[in-house]
């Protein structure tokens, strides 16, 4: 089973990722588990890509929660853990080894930690850890990035905004992930006719790329509160003029969804001024990247926000929106909840297992209700815990829910 979005677009054959083989490195790169299927259980292959920094810490916690919630709903997971990013660079000299990509591509869903770190900051661009993310997103063709930003009642005080502004915020940002200025050509750094260096990138969107992400957004809004705000810069950018025209044309197919448009500079301001006005936002790659980080701070911490990246077919990619947080890596300080909630999105959007997803979401709320907090969301009166203990508490809540419902 795989993440699938209803669009009119057909997939092309996947590109081959350039990379060195893992079959011949000096050290054994990964652990592969192949459990025998138990009768009566649904079985899924999950690719785990822990990555760098706090990635392995949060993935190890989220894996246990995923396994437990799944097993309580009759699901069995075959986990395959593979190196990506800096970890892969250290092992075989490329950020996304062929075997890692193949394992991801052949899985039912992918759970990724985070990528990057100081150690590789001065690498040449094609040898930077973050290139693994670009290759994965591009070659898995996961064009739709869903980023929910919800202010949980338990964490209103962790928001940087006033209680009355933050309370009740519940939005979904739908970001286009495989097009726009991050992938557009021409791009580069060259010397112009005056002998001066110039850097340039291209914001590029084809009509079909806009249509397919707009459809995902209309469908998403339809299942929420029926309000869609399309964010662009149509007063300046030609690509945005086309974006607005295509999104507007599609609106007639979704009469139950109220469509509005907003310029990105205004959207950045409105997110801070009155975030409750937003239900679903659809926007391009670069605006979505920036606005979703902004939205994360409204919710209290970047350590709380999960994401799902989905294509027309094939496995979805599920990951927290934060990076590898090298400043706290290896200190058991990371908040694992964004990754745990990404595991819930994996169950819901990747495998269609809503009940198991709900178990995880409820367990996270339960753990917060009990007052457990990592440093990034701590406020006086609560219990400060590390990454591992937070994971253990969520596991206990997953279990106790079962006791209550049996
Ligand atoms: N998807 C990804 O893998 C991804 C995303 C963004 C950045 N990066 C990479 O991560 C590295 C660090 O980037 P950055 O510092 O700009 O962003 P970051 O998200 O790693 O960290 C920003 C700040 O938030 C804190 N933070 C992040 N996640 C947290 C968590 N789960 N719990 C508690 N605190 C948390 C960090 O300690 C840091 O102070 C860079 O190499 C960057 O390229 C990777």
Could you walk me through the main structural features you see in this protein, from its secondary elements to its overall organization?
The chain has 12 helices and 15 strands. With 406 residues, the chain is of the alpha/beta class. It has an 11-stranded mixed sheet, with helices on both faces. Helix 8 (264-273) runs parallel beside helix 9 (285-298). Mean pLDDT is 90; it is low at 1-21 and 23-35. Bound molecules: nicotinamide-adenine-dinucleotide. The site of nicotinamide-adenine-dinucleotide has 21 residues, from loops. Keywords: Amino-acid biosynthesis, Branched-chain amino acid biosynthesis, Leucine biosynthesis, Magnesium, Manganese, Metal-binding, NAD, Oxidoreductase. InterPro entries: IsoCit/isopropylmalate_DH_CS, IsoPropMal-DH-like_dom, Isopropylmalate_DH. This is 3-isopropylmalate dehydrogenase. Homodimer.
Name the ligand types.
nicotinamide-adenine-dinucleotide
CATH class label of the largest domain: Alpha Beta
Report the end-to-end length measured between terminal Cα atoms: 28 Å
How would you describe the shape?
globular
Q: What's the order of the H and E elements?
A: EEHEHHEHEHEEEHEHEHEHEEHHEEH
Strand order of the largest sheet: 1-3-2-4-13-12-5-6-11-9-10
Give the number of DSSP strands: 15
Helicity level, as a percent range? 25-40%
By CATH, the superfamily of the largest domain comes out as Isopropylmalate Dehydrogenase
CATH fold call of the largest domain: Isopropylmalate Dehydrogenase
GO molecular function, one term: magnesium ion binding
EC number: 1.1.1.85
Function: Catalyzes the oxidation of 3-carboxy-2-hydroxy-4-methylpentanoate (3-isopropylmalate) to 3-carboxy-4-methyl-2-oxopentanoate. The product decarboxylates to 4-methyl-2 oxopentanoate.
Keywords: Amino-acid biosynthesis, Branched-chain amino acid biosynthesis, Leucine biosynthesis, Magnesium, Manganese, Metal-binding, NAD, Oxidoreductase
